[in-house]
Amino acid sequence: MRYRLYSPEDFPALYAIEEACFEPPFRFSRRYLRSIIQSAQSATWLAEIRENLSGFSVIEWSGHANALVAYLQTIEVLPEFRMHGVGRELLNRSQASALAAGVRHIWLHVDEFNTSAIRLYESDGYVRQARKENYYPHGRAALVLSKAIQPGTVS
């Protein structure tokens, strides 16, 4: 598996992963996904095998120089590549990008029934902060998880 940062020509293959991983209405729109990927305050990491994308992650940050906070928008891995460490490596690279930008705190939402994602985040030190009712379509709740990061705490 090879990991690298996103280039604009990757968008069609990246969005194909979005379509494979999420059905409407849970799927990001092309416009929204493109807007967060193109932000100067974000990093998009790709996983590829034999030049075919197998997954991606998007993290974005905001705030002031001394108080940057990152939001992990998504980690998506094609089903056939799950449970092989791809998601963990994308998470590590996203966190490293945020840390390099000066971020010291990351948070995210995760579907309360996405047990494999919750296990990944909690095993990496994320802590449950809240539960948001009706966050996702069809009345599904989200857990809010967060983690403090600092140099030496991110792989």
Structure description:
By secondary structure, this protein is an alpha+beta fold. It has helices spanning 11-21, 30-38, 86-100, 115-123, and strands at 2-5, 42-49, 52-62, 69-77, 105-111, 127-136, 140-148. It has a single domain (2-148), classed as Gcn5-related N-acetyltransferase (GNAT) (Aminopeptidase, 3-Layer(aba) Sandwich). A seven-stranded mixed sheet has the order 1-2-3-4-5-7-6, sandwiched between helices.
Question: What would the keywords be for this entry?
Answer:
155 residues; Aminopeptidase; seven-stranded mixed beta sheet; 4 helices; 37% strand
Total tally of structural domains: 1
CATH superfamily: Gcn5-related N-acetyltransferase (GNAT)
The residue ranges in which pLDDT falls below 50 over 5 or more consecutive positions are: none
- Biggest pleated-sheet summary: 7 strands, mixed
3D shape: globular
Task: Give a brief description.
The chain has 155 residues and is of the alpha+beta class.
Can you lay out the helices and strands and say which pair or pack?
Elements: E1 2-5, H1 11-21, H2 30-38, E2 42-49, E3 52-62, E4 69-77, H3 86-100, E5 105-111, H4 115-123, E6 127-136, E7 140-148
Parallel strand pairs: 4-5
Antiparallel strand pairs: 1-2, 2-3, 3-4, 5-7, 6-7
